[in-house]
Amino acid sequence: MREKKLKKLQRELRILEEANSGKKKAMERVLDLAYGRTGKLRREIVEPLLTDPGALLPERIIPEVEKSRPPVYSPELRALLTSSYSRTTKPLSNKLLDRPPKIPDRADPESEEAQLLGPFSKRREVNIRWRYFTTEIKKVLPPLEVVVEQSPTQQNSRQMTDKHSLIQAGARPIGLQGSGVMEDALAIAGPAYSPPPKTRRERRSSNLNEQPAPTPSSPLQTHLPKRFVRRRFRELLSRVPVLTCRPSSKPGTRSGRYSVTAPLNAVSNALRYEPCRLPMVDDVDLAWIDMAQKQTPSDAKQKRSK
């Protein structure tokens, strides 16, 4: 037992040393452990999502057995299981959550298979449902916190993460709610797009009295190349979904509606062509657009004929 613990400590120490030296795989491993993508912290984040305090207990599949109740999918868990941003594999549908694919048609006592072959074993149905539940939970990427979106249809929409806003929206805190961990990761990753530095000619032709734009402050303090660290954090954010709760507009309804998105500055193929990742329009682009708008179709046709 002691030798196993020593080997584990040596392995973890080696991973930390490789991460400090700039090894990509080791850095990803350390970030996944620190932000709950794997390990004990991930299990602690997922555990509250496995229950729904506001839901009624489902009926027993076997009437005389208390443990035969099927698993309960909370609204947060349903949103995570049915979204591609919070899954390591293909997202599920609500139909599969209500009826796992391995349950045969024979489980329905009114089906033709049940009438020909007899009823399906209730114990097997219980085992299939719980096995499917535990298997799919392992493929979920848990969020670090719940974001409450206030006034989603208005331009002045705000996203809140404090406990008071969660209580008003009827949501419960999960993960590292209110710790500021997600905000720090977003700050280290930086914006989705940063303009390239100006060339020497552009600097000379620019107005000397023009004040340079202030650069946003970053909490990143490291001996490693900052570009390398920002890239690793952007890849990490692609594995950290954003769980958003929109309060219900119906009076008397406490629970909100949940949706899952990805951070805008995450490195992901799904966000490759998002507007936030495209460069801002500058004076040169505006000049080209203005020239294209002034050009008539006949002029363009003459140029093509030449």
From TrEMBL:
InterPro entries named in the record: Cup1-like_N (IPR046896)
Cleaved signal peptide residues: none
Biased composition (Basic and acidic residues): 96-109
Region (Disordered): 91-114, 189-226
Domain (LYR motif-containing protein Cup1-like N-terminal): residue spans on this chain: 2-45
UniProt name for this protein: LYR motif-containing protein Cup1-like N-terminal domain-containing protein
